C-alpha cells in the first residue's frame, strides 16, 4: 500500500485527492483508478513528481505547452476536450499567449495535418470563453 511522507498508508481516495490537488482538477477516471489500483496511482504520483516536481530545463509553462500540443495531436475523442481545455487554461494562466499556442500547433501541421491546428484552436477559443465566464462569476 502506498505511503505518505510520514510513512502512513494512503488509501485510494487520498491518492486521488493528492493527484487532483497537484493537477488542479478532479478527473473521475483518476478517482476510479486510485480506489481500485492504489499502487498504480502511487506510481503515477511518483512519476508526476519526477517530471514536474524537480528542476528541469523546461518550466511549468513549457510543460503545459507540450501537454497542449500532445493532446491536440492525439485528438482521441470528445472526452479529450475537457482535458485539453484544462491544460489550455492552465497554460494561459501561466502566461502562454493564444498566438504563441497557435504557432506551436501550426508547427505540427506538416507531420500531423491541419486538423491539429483547427482542433487545438477551437478548444483554445472555448477555453478562453470558459475562463471569461468563470472570471465574471467572481
Key phrases:
138 residues, mainly alpha, 2 domains, 8 helices
Number of domains: 2
Residues in β-strands, percent:
under 5%
Mean pLDDT: 84
Number of continuous helical runs:
8
Question: Which stretches of 5+ consecutive residues score pLDDT under 50?
Answer: none
- The helix content, as a percent range, equals over 70%
Task: Characterise this structure.
This protein is mainly alpha-helical. It starts with 11 loop residues before the first helix and ends with a helix. The chain contains eight helices and no strands.
Helix and strand topology:
Blueprint: H1 12-23, H2 28-36, H3 38-52, H4 60-74, H5 80-93, H6 98-107, H7 109-112, H8 115-137
Structure in a nutshell:
This protein is mainly alpha-helical and 138 residues long. It is built from eight helices and no strands.
Amino acid at each position: 500500500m502506498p505511503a505518505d511522507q510520514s510513512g502512513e498508508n494512503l488509501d485510494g481516495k487520498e491518492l486521488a485527492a493528492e493527484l487532483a490537488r497537484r493537477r488542479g482538477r478532479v478527473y473521475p477516471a483518476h478517482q476510479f483508478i486510485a480506489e481500485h489500483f492504489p499502487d498504480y496511482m502511487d506510481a503515477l504520483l511518483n512519476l508526476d513528481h519526477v517530471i514536474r516536481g524537480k528542476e528541469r530545463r523546461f518550466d511549468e509553462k513549457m510543460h503545459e505547452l507540450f501537454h497542449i500540443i500532445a493532446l491536440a495531436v492525439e485528438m482521441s475523442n470528445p472526452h479529450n476536450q475537457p482535458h485539453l481545455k484544462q491544460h489550455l487554461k492552465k497554460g494561459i494562466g501561466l502566461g502562454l499567449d493564444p498566438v504563441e499556442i497557435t504557432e506551436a500547433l501550426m508547427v505540427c501541421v506538416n507531420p500531423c495535418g491541419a486538423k491539429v491546428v483547427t482542433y487545438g484552436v477551437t478548444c483554445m477559443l472555448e477555453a478562453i470563453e470558459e475562463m471569461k465566464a468563470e472570471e465574471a462569476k467572481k
